Amino acid sequence: DGQVSMFRDLLTARLTDKGFAIMDGHDVADRFKETQAESDPVVAVLRAVSKGIDVAKTEASVEQVLNGASALRIAQMLDAQYIIVATFASLGTEAKAFHGSGTLYKTDNQVLTRTLRTSIKVLEGQRGSTVYGDTVLSRTRIAGNEHLSVITTDGDNSLIDEAANKIAENISSKIARIKAVPVDSTSTIEVEVNANVEGATVEFDGATMGSAPGRFAIRPGLHQM
Question: What is the pTM of this model?
Answer without folding.
Answer: 0.63
